[in-house]
Automatic annotation (TrEMBL):
It is an enzyme of class 2 (transferase). It holds the Pfam family CDP-OH_P_transf. Gene3D superfamilies: 1.20.120.1760. It is a multi-pass membrane protein. It is found in: Endomembrane system. Keywords: Lipid biosynthesis, Lipid metabolism, Membrane, Phospholipid biosynthesis, Phospholipid metabolism, Transferase, Transmembrane, Transmembrane helix. This is CDP-diacylglycerol--serine O-phosphatidyltransferase. It comes from Neobacillus paridis. Belongs to the CDP-alcohol phosphatidyltransferase class-I family. The chain crosses the membrane at residues 12-30, 94-111, 123-145, 151-168, 180-197, 203-224. GO terms for molecular function: CDP-diacylglycerol-serine O-phosphatidyltransferase activity.
Amino acid sequence: MIHIIKNSIPNLFTLFNLFFGFLSVMYSAVGDYKNAAILILIGMMLDSMDGRVARMLQVQSDLGKELDSLADIVTFGVAPAMMAYYAYFSAFGVFGMAIAGLFPLFGAYRLARFNINAVKSSLKYFSGVPITAGGGILTFLTLFHGKMPSIILPIAFFVICILMVSTIKIPSLKEVPLPKYGIIITLFLGYAIYIVFKREQHRFPYFIYVAIPLYILFIGYQLVRSKRKSSVK
């Protein structure tokens, strides 16, 4: 029984990542882009944690890897594309739908290519921009779409799509003790703190106040763990 629970813990992180991606799509559909963006942020947190938790518990599995890819397509492919569609591309009707649909298509191809080359790939770099980083950047730009020239979002949209399927070497953070995609997450957290400071926190989902402290604790644990490892060496 304990072994089953232990094996299920990393998958729960991944499933919650998928669930928050679905909720983000729902918030985008009603035009609430702030909540949609925060939910994708939480998905990024969970995505950076599930693999590390699996390694900590020594319960890595092929099921977890496949589940992670499926969750990533929704949270960092479909959800950001929906944000971009409702914020910008919806003005172009069916054509806008087709354009927005390109993002999860390119992202899915990027994930499939990564999965079949994962064993051969280097720990020092990725081949093309990971869908998680691409989805995070698109989400951040969409969130501030009204405060920048409107042309930036569509240009960034197509550039990210191309970069995801490109073979450009992108530095990897796999060997860094901190969670992945720290820059993007830091930007999101900075924006969240700004909103709270402006006393507009009621516009966020309540679970962000659980997710952020837990994530900070996780970062602290990783730092302590890495220091212990270095001292043992």
